[in-house]
Amino acid sequence: MIVYVDMVFLTNLAVDGTVLLTTAKVRRLQPKRRRIALSAGMGAVYAAGMFMADVPYLYSFAVKVLVSLAMLLCAFGYGSPLRLARLMGTFYLVSFATLGGVLGLTFLLRQSRAPWSDLSLSPDGGLLLELPLQFLLLAVCFALSVWLFRGASASAERTGQLDSLIVNVAVTIGGETRECRGLVDTGNRLYDPLTRIPVMMMEASLWKEQLPSGWAERLKDEPADSLVAGLDHDSSEGYAWGDRLRLIPYRGVNGNTRLLLAIKPDSVSISPSGAPSRHYKRVLIGMDGGTLSPDGSYRAIVHPDLGMSFDAEAAPSQTA
Predict the structure, then answer these.
(1) CB of 286 within 8 A of CB of 190?
(2) Are residues 283 and 207 in the same domain?
C-alpha cells in the first residue's frame, strides 16, 4: 500500500483545524486563527510522523493524550484545570462525533455489502476496519458530520436556554384554576396604561368553557373591543366576568395600535421547577386566540416583572 505523507499531513491539518474551530464554537471561545493553525499543524505532524518513524511508544495512549493537551494549550491557553478539562472533553466529543458521522455516512453511501466484510484482525489481535474512500467522499462525509454536530449542539443549547426561562404558572379566576407552563419574556413590557399593572399572556383555549361561547376561537381574527361590545350583559353568559374584563392598548409588529382582551384574576402563582411559588394579585391576564408555542412547550407568556424576581425564599403575596 502506497501512503503519501503529504496528503496525510494536509488531510489531518484540515481535520484537526475543523475540530478545533468546532470546539471553540461549542465552548463560545474566539481564539486567534494563527494559534488554531499552529495547533492543527502539531496534530498533522504527529499523524504524518506515524508513517515516517517506527517508534511504537510515540503512539501509545499516554502520548496521544499529551499531544491532545499540547494542541489545546496551544490553541486556547490554560486558564484553569476545570477549563482545560472541559476543553478536553469537548475536543474528544467533537472528534468522536465527527468520526462516527464519517463512518455512518460512508456505510450509507457505499454499495450494499456485508458490513463485516471490511473488518479483519491484525497479527497482534487488533481490529482493522478498511475503508477505501476517495478523498472527495471523505471530505464530503466529514463536512456533513461537522455540520450535523454543530446543528445538534446549537439546537441543544437553544433548548437549554429556553428551559431556563420556563416556569410553572397557575391562574385562578372566579374560583377556576388553570395550570400550564409559561415562558418568561424579558422583552414583554406590556402594562395597563392607567394602573401600570403588568400584563401576562395566556392561551384563551385554556378558558374556553369560562369565556362566552366562541370567544376563544374568535379572538384570533376579531378585534377584542367588538367582542366586548357585543356582550349581552343581561344574560348569564359571560356576565360573571363582566367586571373583570379589560381592554389593553398595545402596538403590534406592524406598528398599528390594537386592543387586547385581558381579565383580572383572583391570583397568579409562578414558580420555576423545584422552587417555591410566588403569588401575585396585581396582574392582568391577556387572552391570545392562537397558539403561543408551536410545539406546545408553553402556553403562557410571563411578564418579566413576575418571572424574573425569584430569590431563595418565596415572597409574600402582593396585593392589588
Answers:
(1) yes
(2) yes
Q: Which of 127, 289, 114 is nearest to 208 (CA)?
A: 289
Alpha-carbon distance of 167 to 277, in angstroms, equals 10
In 3D, which of 191, 144, 169, 187 has the Cα closest to residue 268? 169
Contact 74, 41 (CB under 8 A): no
What is the extent of the structural domain holding 61?
Answer: 5-107+131-163
Is pLDDT of 206 > 70? yes
Q: What's the chain's average pLDDT?
A: 75
Cell 408553553 locates to 298
Total count of domains within the chain? 2
- Residue range 47-58: average pLDDT? 73
> Three cell numbers at 294?
408551536
Residue 117 identity: S
Report the distance separating Cα 261 and Cα 289, nearest Å: 10
d(CA 29, CA 104): 29
Answer whether 97's CB lies under 8 Å from 149's CB.
yes
Q: How confident is the model at residue 58 (pLDDT cuts 50, 70, 90)?
A: confident
Write out pLDDT tens, residues 163-196. Answer: 667 888 999 998 889 999 888 887 778 898 888 9
243 is catalytic: no
Name the pTM for this structure: 0.51
Catalytic residue among 16, 118, 124, 185: 185
141 and 200 housed in the same domain: no
Indicate whether 181 and 239 sit together in one domain.
Answer: yes
